Amino acid sequence: MSGLPPPEEWPSVRGLLAELPDEALPRAGRFLARLDPAEVLAAHPATPLVSLYVTGHGTLAALRPALAVELARHGLLAGITLADFDAWVRDLADPASDLYTTLGEAGGPAFALAVLGPEIVAAELPLPWRADDAARVLDTKIALIEKLAETFASTANGATLVLNTLPLPRELTAQLLDRRERAALGAAWREANTRLLRLDRPEVAVVDLDPLLAEGVRARDPRQSVYAKAHLTDDLLAAYAREVGHLARQAAGQGKKVLVLDLDETVWGGVLGEVGPEGVEVAEGYRGEAFTRFQRVVRQLGSQGVLVAAVSKNDPEPVAGVLRDHPGMTLREGDFVQVRANWRPKHDNLAELAGDLNLGADSFVFADDSPFERGLVRRELPGVAVVDLSDEPALHVTALLRDGWFDVPRLTSDDLARPARYREEGARRGFLESFDSLEGYLAELGTEVRLAPAAPAQLDRVSQLTLRTNQFNLTTCRLSPAEVRDLAGDPDARVLAIASADRFGEHGLVGAVLLRRDGAVLRVENFLLSCRVFARGIEQAVLGAVLEHARGSAAREVRAAYRRTAKNGRVAGFYPEAGFTTVHADEAGAEFRHDLTRPPEPVPHIRLSADFGGHQP
Amino acid sequence: MISVEEYVTLLRDELALPVTEDDLGRSLDTVDAWDSVHLLTLCTLLERQTGRPLPFARVLEAPSLAAVYELATAS
Lengths: 617, 75
Hints:
The complex is a heterodimer. By secondary structure, chain A is an alpha/beta fold. Chain A is elongated and about 100 Å long. Chain A starts with 9 loop residues before the first helix and ends in a 7-residue tail after the last strand. Chain B has one domain (4-73): Non-ribosomal Peptide Synthetase Peptidyl Carrier Protein, Chain A (Orthogonal Bundle), CATH 1.10.1200. The chains are: A alpha/beta, B mainly alpha. The interface between A and B is medium-sized, with 17 and 16 residues.
């Protein structure tokens, strides 16, 4: 977000924020805070509005942008009222206060945020003071808060009071020199926080700041605290606002129920289609342990009513095999309500899954390590929450849990029984093959493909592709590095490397085409493409370039073969679909020819540059 | 160090204030969309950008954005 969004563009804000890194959110929040909710509602009357009355100790104005952006991330408009400075006790104690009036007038979900910091205690310590003085002040404060919570519960109909635990600053503990005294202060402080946490009831939510601080968020900036009475840092208030955003999302009825996981590089390491069931990383080795840790957390969520499903671009049988037989897997087939392993666009799978489960896709959370797949789902199904997994599996758990997607005020027995119920209904469909229209997305993706003779440094990677690619491998002719090198040196042959990139970044060397010139016949000896990038038009564009090259170099025809294996069934039709005719075909495979009378079909969304390295082959 | 242009860019792009260089000398309460909390955020952003601490107490007394700039760049 690079400026103040006009109110009428509100519906696009959520999608824009989803692509921003955390460090860019405060800035977006400062712009969003200037947006008048009334103007957004005038332009889009159906926008869900959540009313937030912010009160507490000290200067809390930094919460306004933080709340605006954190609620907008969930598509919620924040109607924020900032109370007078330090008016929290009066606000909460007096049933006729501005706080209760404002909450009473709120049309939708309403929250009172009573933001409290350690200064409510520090400011009332005598001088000199001892641990039992602090304990006494803490006791008085918590008793007061307990009473205010009672008043709130009986006064604010349907609204929620949000309290928070008090961070314990070293500036306090270090003032006590006696070790036992210092420990006593620590214990009394924790007892006060424990009492606060025990206040959690339907009308009261307590945000525990300890886990946020443990992530490394700084609690206080003494200068801001002393000079500006801003007792909690902007960073801590931003983390707090994120938690409030989760509460607001739940109150607005936008809780999530289904976790849809990609499999390769999400649930296990490696690409199953390339490395095979024995090659996937799970349970053992550094990365394997990281994936197992993630699987355990998924299972933990599943035990609390989250429906877990898998949508993976893979053939169904190997996926079923790994889930059933791989000794290292924590997640098994029975942990999923559905496993959809096929080659169709993931958003189509998600939409069908939603139909099968009889849930809206907006109750879905989708986690994938591929920016391509995430971008496509975000675009096609904007209601789905998308979790950005990286190529570092040790960070998968943090990413999955970052937004408390499945948090609920209270788990019900129905929640707990839900996964079993869906499994019994057991609609395990899927495994169908079709390729629906993706043109719009692919056009926006800006895919660039470079086809050129493999450089010496790329020959090992080409060998690796022939050895490890099982699915998009037309002949499955495996070549050692030495054999690839020989081929590259053969004047009648050509080893072409396919490299690609799109707006998400470089994919590097993703495929290879092996050509041989035999008089007036140009032979495609093999065609390989990593499953990370196929079904985006790259294969059609490259084959088109080969046909164009043949036409331009006086070849009479192009010949190509397909050798069937257990894993490459889905590319059996690759050449016929590109205009080749079948010379002969049997169980083992087929031979094709293209007579070059008609030009190949263009692939408009791909920018391809082709270099065949001179006129031969 | 931060140039005047960079300072104005920071005010506009990071702080979301619709100001130009001409507004720097104005009294803060007449700056469009100004709120006292902006001063705190501005301190944080300036310290992050310049890598040097600001005298907070004096910044809080600054009458204008130009005065804040002078404090941030004073040697």
